[in-house]
Amino acid sequence: MDISARELQNEVLRAEDYAFIRGFADQIKGAVAGVADAGVETTLIADVHTDSNSKQCLEEGTGRLRNLVVVYPMPDGGLVAGVGPAFSYYEFKQPMADRLTDEKWKAMLRGARPPALPEWVKSFATLPE
User: Residue 10 has what pLDDT?
Assistant: First the structure.
């Protein structure tokens, strides 16, 4: 948090700050140590609303990870591009009688016609679905 606060103040970071950032992934591996692959899966689906009148439910899901590119200023006035993973997001109506499980959702994403991203996501998610 201290490093982030100093970055937001446009302060120059110390060498040990950069070392911490570079090693952060290794430091948090213990948070998921011993968890089966399914426990860290990022492709998930959930019903968030059911409409008895239309017999439909609203599904919200995450799909494949996408690359997020962010350009940010450095204290010396230069710009740096940072790249990292970001969740994809989907929302759509599904018949109540055919609510999705994570397994069905993954099959839909692998299929010939996966659902489209919501319109509002398309304004900043410019990569192919």
Answer: 87
